[in-house]
Design a protein that fits this description.
This protein has 490 residues and is an alpha/beta fold. Helix content is 24%, strand content 28%. The protein has ten helices and 26 strands. A ten-stranded mixed beta sheet has the order 23-22-26-20-19-16-1-21-25-24, covered by helices on one side. The chain has an eight-stranded parallel β-barrel with strand order 2-5-8-9-10-11-12-13, surrounded by five helices. A two-stranded antiparallel sheet has the order 3-4. α3 crosses α4 and α9 runs parallel beside α10. The model has no long low-confidence stretch (mean pLDDT 96). Bound molecules: alpha-L-arabinofuranose. Alpha-L-arabinofuranose (AHR) binds next to loops.
């Protein structure tokens, strides 16, 4: 019997709901053929946006959506994506498959999408190949209500009132696809560009600077030192890619050794957050600058037979476990991590949703976000689970991993059993309160199990009734390769 302890007396930071955020790029079939099918499609849509996808994202309370990239952001010229469709310029999406981008999904369509979902828009501007003026005018176009050339243009395009735009990224991966800059150079470029990201009327913009790739601590150091006073957020990108770019392996056909390797790689997220946070703490001890993990998730080989530039991969219980572990980590660092955006929403990398024509399936990763949604804006609680290291072939991970939070009189617990084959008996004790009632759901399956278009509900959360009240808590057995959500009224 392992002990799980939740201390209601020791409260931590508020878990920013934006930790449960998303990212949609003009890449493969994420936007076109995924989210956006056009007004004339036979697939049910509102203004060209698929209604089933909107419904699914509303269901998990998607709080924020990042767009238009990714690498695409630094070659995107927003002015080409507004106005009458027939006048919109076509361009080549050089990063992602060299396909033609017809700009039919632009600023108006994106802000409509966010409105339909009920989430905050997070726009990333073009630093790599754009100008200061272009970025400045985009913000003016979206957020300014007075008399100005951009406000006028917006009105001509059918939108009288400005939109609210809170989150704005000044470039993406400017150490790589966004211009191959050195941090010393980008820090100054950032200071320059962000000056003209104006705060119009009552629209207060939270400015996000391009942060480090994985463990590039030097980038963080330079950015915080030179530009720390000019930003509200610093991004971090980390993908779980076992074996590296040359040997990522299949998203579905993998052995248990690869399973444990993937989990071990995913758990690196904790060390990364800690080491970047140490530097941020040095320059910003009061934590004015938030860490924004605006790209994370599993990156495997593309599905055979699909365009290599489209990054389409299936999604299994392994992905669900990685999502669950990562979200637990974000919760526990919510005093610094203020937003995270899994890559990507539909049909790309670790997707929430996959589509094939009019069919749509929810992935195991989606179901984790569903199980975890009550953590959004809740108060982090101190929690501890007695875990042991397990694994094969030298790969090692803790067998149990937990996060707990509280809203009013309700405790939310998310517990992961990473073992691919063994259950664990748990005695859950609650300090400082007594459980009055509880409800629980579980997501479980074999490590390779997944949903597909013929069998869309193979993996989905089920109600979990095998829990007994014990003195000061609860007693239950958590199944292998599973993620359990327990709601406890105290
Ligand atoms: O998410 C796919 C790509 O990964 C993004 O465009 C880029 O920012 C990152 O390298």
């Amino acid at each position: 019997m392992r002990e799980l302890f939740i201390n209601t007396a020791k409260k931590g930071s508020k878990i920013n709901k934006n930790i449960y955020g998303h990212f949609a790029e003009h890449l493969g079939h994420c936007i076109y053929g995924g989210i956006f099918v056009g007004k004339n499609s036979i697939i049910p849509n509102m203004n060209g946006i698929r209604t089933d996808i909107v419904k699914a994202l509303r269901e998990i309370k998607a709080p924020v959506l990042r767009w238009p990239g990714g690498c695409f952001a630094d070659e995107y010229h927003w002015i080409d994506g507004i106005g009458p469709l027939e006048n919109r310029k076509k361009m080549v999406n050089t990063h992602w498959g060299g396909v033609t981008e017809d700009n039919s999904f632009g600023t108006h369509e994106f802000l409509d999408l966010c409105n339909q979902i009920g989430c905050e828009p997070y726009i990333t501007g073009n630093v790599g190949s754009g100008t200061v003026r272009e970025m400045s005018e985009w913000v003016e176009y979206i957020t300014f209500d007075g008399i100005s050339p951009m406000a006028q243009l917006r009105k001509q395009n059918g939108r009288e009132k400005s939109w609210k735009l809170k989150y704005f990224g000044v470039g993406n991966e400017n150490w790589g696809c966004g211009g191959n800059m050195r941090p010393e150079y980008y820090a100054d470029v950032y200071r320059n560009y962000q000056t003209y990201v104006r705060q119009y009327d009552h629209n207060k913009i939270f400015k996000i600077a391009c942060g480090p790739n994985t463990d590039d601590l030097h980038w963080t150091e330079v950015m915080m030192k030179i530009a720390g006073n000019y930003m509200d957020g610093l991004s971090l990108h980390y993908y779980t890619s076992p074996g590296g770019p040359k040997g990522r392996g299949s998203a579905v056909n993998f052995e248990r050794s690869k399973y444990y390797e993937t989990l071990q790689e995913a758990l690196r997220m904790e060390k990364l957050i800690e080491s970047h946070s140490i530097i941020m703490d040095k320059y910003d001890p009061e934590k004015h600058v938030g860490l924004v993990v605006d790209e994370w998730g599993n990156w495997f080989d593309v599905q055979e037979g699909t365009n290599p530039g489209f990054l389409f991969q299936q999604n299994t219980m392994r992905d669900a476990i990685v999502a669950a572990l990562t979200l637990n980590i974000f919760n526990s660092h919510s005093n610094r991590v203020v937003m995270a955006n899994i890559a990507q929403t539909v049909n790309v990398l670790q997707s929430m949703i996959l589509t094939e024509g009019e069919k749509m399936i929810l992935t195991p990763t989606y179901h984790v976000f569903d199980l975890y949604k009550d953590h959004q804006d809740a108060e982090l609680l101190d929690s501890y689970v007695e875990a042991q290291e397990i694994g094969v072939d030298g790969f090692s991970v803790p067998d149990l991993h937990v996060s707990a939070s509280k809203t009013d009189d309700t405790i939310h617990v998310t517990l992961v059993n990473t073992s691919d084959s063994e259950s664990r008996e748990i005695l859950c004790r609650i300090g400082g309160a007594s459980a009055k009632s509880f409800a629980s759901k579980i997501l479980t399956g074999a490590i390779n199990a997944h949903n597909d278009f013929d069998n869309p509900n193979q993996i989905k959360p089920k109600s979990f009734d095998d829990i007994k009240m014990a003195e000061n808590g609860l007693c239950f057995t958590i199944l292998p390769c599973s993620c359990l959500e327990i709601t406890i009224k105290v």
